[in-house]
Amino acid sequence: MIDFLKVNIDSVLDITILEYRIKKMLEKNFTNVPEVFLVAKELATNILKYGTKGYIEIDLHSDKITITAVDYGIKKDDTRYFDEKNKSLGLGLKIVRKNSDEFSFMPNEYGGITVKAVICLNSKSRKSFYINWGVAGRPHLLEEKSGDLISIKEVGKGEFLVLHADVLGHGLEANKLAEKIGVFFDEQPFTNLERFFLDLQHFIYDSRGCALFLALVSEYGLEYINIGNIRVWIIMDGKIRRLVEMPGIVGRNINRYKIFRENLMLHRVLLISCSDGVSSRFSPALLDLNNVYDIQVLAEDIAERFGVKNDDVSVLVLKGD
């Protein structure tokens, strides 16, 4: 065994602590296995929901990671282990099994259940992750070209770089800088989000600048920097949450900004990003998100219904596949 951690799970706050300690353990051992966050979080959530309290143990070996979840008692409505209606595992453990190479559960001495999941570090069995997206927009009513830009490219197996920029001003000059950013985005090699962002700042330094949402998206979450007035929401299980925005103008100065991380399963998430050409009264709560069959149609609907005439409009809707 290379490393080990144990976290008691008694409240929702303990799940955040668990994610932080996993992150530190993996960084210390130069290991990047996003599935660990997802599996551990699902198991910890199940402990609180059905077993009231318990603990998570994680054993890091040279060839595998073992995640063990122990709870101290099962509630009567426990459906984690077998869903009688659907004759299958409950949703939480379906996700755990899908993202593990080995999976088992059994009663324990405390009157609860012990679940064990093993993730092999050299596994070749996992499917690649892809994203679907819809993009819509138009220039300022009095202009022919837009200063807004949305670009997406794959930078690794199952990893995608997403850029949404809103150049200050309108018209041809704003469009020239947007096109320049687009060329940089397409041609610049990607190593990590911080390096790419710093290189972009240098590339457009001393320009009119832009608002910028830059994110690295993978199956199990996203890292992002959001500077200026780009508004971004994530919608998961019917809950809407707006991502953090930092003040500033990219390209005016060379600055370091905080990189935020969201650990979540992108298969279950809809992401909506809008420039300030979309009215401030817009919120995803105004949409019927229970019947989203075509994300391109959804992006066009947002731009059409909520776009303002006196600004460039751009909308991105993204979903994992």
What this model shows, in words?
Helix content is 26%, strand content 33%. The two termini are 35 Å apart. A hairpin with a 5-residue loop joins strand 4 (102-107) and strand 5. It is elongated, with a radius of gyration of 22 Å. It folds into two domains: 3-120, Histidine kinase-like ATPase, C-terminal domain (Heat Shock Protein 90, 2-Layer Sandwich); 131-320, Phosphatase 2c, domain 1 (4-Layer Sandwich), CATH 3.60.40. By secondary structure, the chain is α+β, with helices and mostly antiparallel strands. Helix 1 packs antiparallel against helix 2 (34-51) and helix 2 packs antiparallel against helix 3. The protein has a five-stranded antiparallel beta sheet with strand order 1-2-3-5-4, covered by helices on one side. A five-stranded antiparallel beta sheet has the order 6-15-14-11-12, with helices on one face. Strands 7-8-9-10-13 form a five-stranded antiparallel beta sheet.
Distance between the termini: 35 Å
Low-confidence residue ranges = 78-91
CATH class descriptor name of the largest domain: Alpha Beta
SS content category: alpha+beta
Shape: elongated
Which SSEs are present, and which pair or pack?
Layout: E1 3-9, H1 12-28, H2 34-51, E2 54-60, E3 64-71, H3 91-98, E4 102-107, E5 113-120, E6 131-138, E7 148-156, E8 159-167, H4 171-187, H5 193-203, E9 210-218, E10 221-227, E11 231-236, E12 239-242, E13 260-263, E14 269-274, H6 295-306, E15 313-320
Antiparallel strand pairs: 1-2, 2-3, 3-5, 4-5, 6-15, 7-8, 8-9, 9-10, 10-13, 11-12, 11-14, 14-15
Helix pairs in contact: 1-2, 2-3
